[in-house]
Automatic annotation (TrEMBL):
It comes from Thauera mechernichensis. The keyword Ion transport does not apply. Residues 529-782 form the EAL domain. Residues 290-342 form the HAMP domain. The chain crosses the membrane at residues 12-31. The lineage of its organism: Bacteria, Pseudomonadati, Pseudomonadota, Betaproteobacteria, Rhodocyclales. Keywords: Membrane, Transmembrane, Transmembrane helix. This is EAL domain-containing protein. CDD domains: EAL (cd01948), GGDEF (cd01949), HAMP (cd06225). Residues 378-520 form the GGDEF domain. Gene3D superfamilies: 3.30.70.270, 6.10.340.10, EAL domain (3.20.20.450). The keyword Transmembrane applies.
Amino acid sequence: MRFGFRRLQWRIAAWTAMILLSVQIGGLFLFEHVGRSSALQEVKVQLDTGDRVLDRLLEQRSAQLAQAARVLAADFGFREAVLTGDADTAASALGNHGSRIGASLMLLTGLDGRALAAHPAGGDAFAQRLARFIADAQARGAATGFQVVGDSVFQLVVVPVMAPVPVAWVAIGFVVDEALVHDLKRVIGLDVSLVRGRELEAALVASTLPTDVDAAQLLADAGRGMLVGGFEYAGLVRDLDPLASERVFAVLQVSLERALEPWERLYREWSGLTVAATVAMLLASMWMGRTIASPVTRLAEFARRVRVGEYAAPPMVRREDEIGRLATAFALMTEAIASREARISELAYRDVLTGLPNRVQFVESLDRFVRSFGERGERLAVLTLDIDRFKLINDSLGHDLGDQVLQEVGRRLQHAGMRRRDLAQGLQDEANACARLGGDEFAVLVPGADAVAARVVAERIAALLEAPMNVQGQLVDVRASIGIALYPDHGNDAGELMRGADVAMYKAKQAHAGHAIYDPAHHGRNAARLSLLTELRQAVEGDELVLYYQPKHAFRSSAMLSVEALVRWVHPKRGFVPPMEFIPFAEQTGYIRAITLWVLERAVRQCAEWRRAGRAVHVGLNLSARDLLHPELPDQFRAMLEHHGCEARWITLEITESAVLDDPRKALATLERLHATGCQLSIDDYGTGYSSLSYLRQMPVQELKIDRSFVMNLTTRPGDELIVRSTIELAHSLGLVVTAEGVETEEILVRLGELGCDLAQGYFVSRPVDAAGLEAWMDHSPWARGDHPSGTEPTNCA
């Protein structure tokens, strides 16, 4: 049953039937409440009406009885008998007249209330009960009322015998019995019961009720309903004679069953209608639910198939209503979803630019080949290639033309597969053998190839790509670096083979070898470099780096000593790590910026400490090309100066000329802001760049440092001396101080002084030393004391 009601058609039928049944049941309760209330109201009206009719009947009956009594009292013969005291004649007249009017009691009393005559005999016992009637008759001319005598109740009428003043009283009594109450019922239309006495002493006199009832209970329950013979009655109590010594009550009753009979009939008919309507509505709602649920069920089943990727045509629902429109919407939705999934699948597995498979599909194909070839014990080669100098093509010719170059490369790779029919298995054996991995990187899958066959494929691909490409009228020469990884020699899954081929490709690019086969040692070096980056990060955070300072010799006296701060790394396990092993690597990974900030902070702090100790030291330190691309560097440098209390003029920041060429606009803007702090700027390694003179005038520098490659052979190569002399003269003409690096001999030092150089730096002057060693050098070195061995003018300042 629970499972059945999960179906839509049964739920529709059940809810419809429940709603209808609720309305019908509500109607039944309403009819019961309204019917009973209306019946009770109608009964109350009937009782009130019956009470008024009873009152009117009793008045008429009293008037008739009084009139009958007056007729007797006015009879001449009767009055004569009364006046003469003829009791027999009076008794005879009372009997005759009582017989004619059907009276139960005829009585003649004197003015003193004593009985004079009575019919039937013995009626004179009533005389003592007529005192209140006689008093009332004296006041109003006649008196009527009810009087209990023994076990009977009489309706009495008392009138005077006038001659012409009252000479006697005539009393006529009519017994109240079943005949009277039935006569009243016929006139009133209600059941009538007469009760004498009150509360527990009450006695039933006469009643039209079908069964005997308790008189006391009748009086007690008349106002709020009573049960008589298992039937409910509503009643009304009327006191017939409030002045009587023993009270007489008339109780009017109406059967509620009779009053409720029309409502009961309506209730039964409505109940039958409810049952019939519920059954009919249940059947109709089942049919309606079936007409709605059946197509909805088919559409739901169709939606379930769509969810699992089945896009068959939806079920036919030929309707013009909302269900039909829903089916049409399902059909359109399915077509749209299928189209979008096809497009998504194409985007997910196909490169949009070249139409080749992308990295995801290539890796899946490679996985599939590795599994199948591994089971058969066959070999496999993976080639990854990268276009050399492709960034130059984009920058020179534009990205649109660069995209067309990539498209041509893709076509040539596909063509290479079709031409390699001399191999046992070629690219044409697998639709996904060529792929674009991203950017200017491509991959080729060569099933069944060993190292020799893979090299042949790589050489042919290189030859195809080296043929000039005519793109929009532009002849473009393209070369590629190709890396080769072999299965199972270099890996057992797609990930290992792809990594191996990438490592080999970058090795070929570095060696300008065209192609290279993966060597596991390459991966070891890469892992070592990655480990080096992690350790270098820990070294900076753990303060493992150390600053060394190399003094500079000044050819002219000054009050300050110039030194260059050089970072050194003393590894806790590896020992001393040369700068050339971690500085270029840090520049490639971008971590050089963290090292630069560390060097800046330590050098500024040390310079300030020396100045506070009375040592006039001017510290120079190096910035990398990446440092100049960060606009927040000047603010960080200024904050360091303020924090340590160091003046900017005590610091020189050295930059290489090539650092400006990467992004001249940003680099020059950063240099201007650094110069605004008040520090000195110096061009380091001058002469090794490509565009020194074009930017030299724009750069706000105060010093130029000649690269060691020109200084070391100054005295042996005339060409180098010419370059150094020209550089010194050019710098002086621009107002720059010149520093020569790489001074290894006294001869070179003397010659630099002769050429007009300002400062000299190299091992002949001093090797780099730590802060304590520099302080000792300043205190004890002959260069610092002035008796240095070169014979040149001694100085300890820059």
